[in-house]
Amino acid sequence: MGDNRFITFHGYKLCLNDDVYIPAEDTELIMEMIKIKDGETVLDMGSGTGILSLHALKLGAKRVLSIDVNPNAADATLCTLKSNGFSGNVLNCYLLDCIRNTKFDVAIFNPPYLPFEEYDNWLGYSWSGGKSGIDILLSFLSEVVAGRAYVVYSSLSDEDKLMSFLKERFIISSRKEIKIGLERLIGLELIKNDDQASNS
After folding, report:
1. Engineering a disulfide at 2: which of 7, 17, 80, 135 sits with its beta carbon 3.0 to 4.6 angstroms away?
2. Quick one: how many helices (H) and strands (E) in the chain?
3. 135 and 94 in contact (C-beta within 8 Å)?
């Protein structure tokens, strides 16, 4: 595991090491969108430093399950939660491979969203979203069982493919976007479309 050091981001004390994605504009975007009701259960997929897990707990989540494929990120998440006075439920696995049919009130995923396949080091997993840029996100959304989901994607990925997928399964209840150079980052609040799910 990498050696953790502390940073502060949006007033939160976070653990970080050289093999973990540093919170950035995409993190800010999804943080601003997340709404948690007191007592809700939350899944934080791709937890990284654990900032979104911590944010969900501070907003009133009863329980947060944090998952990351990167063992250094799982370690950083656990460190962040403990450093802020929370006990952590953190798993190191690929997407939902380590849990089955677990229902959450809310799912949060700031996924790898660039159209790359660079998996030769742990940091590569944090931005490599597959050939379309949304392969990892689509896999996650196909399997997750949650009433609401908060996700981010990039305009550099296959937006048409994503919208076509979402149209069949979710209602986009909120959308926010920011521009960074030529790229747009888009945050979505998704509500599970139970009518479509029951028809498929």
Report:
1. 17
2. 7, 9
3. no
Per cent of the chain over pLDDT 70 is: 96
Tokens of 49: 């430093």
Alpha-carbon dihedral 144, 148, 150, 156, rounded to 10 degrees:
70
Beta bridge partners of 153: 186
Burial class (CB in 10 A: 0-12, 13-18, 19+), 184: middle
* Residue 154 φ/ψ, nearest 5 degrees: -110, 150
C-alpha 112/C-alpha 154 separation (Å) is 9
Token representation of residue 193: 């479309």
Distance in angstroms (rounded) separating the CA atoms of residues 134 and 132? 5
| pTM, full prediction | 0.92
Tokens standing for residue 99: 């849990």
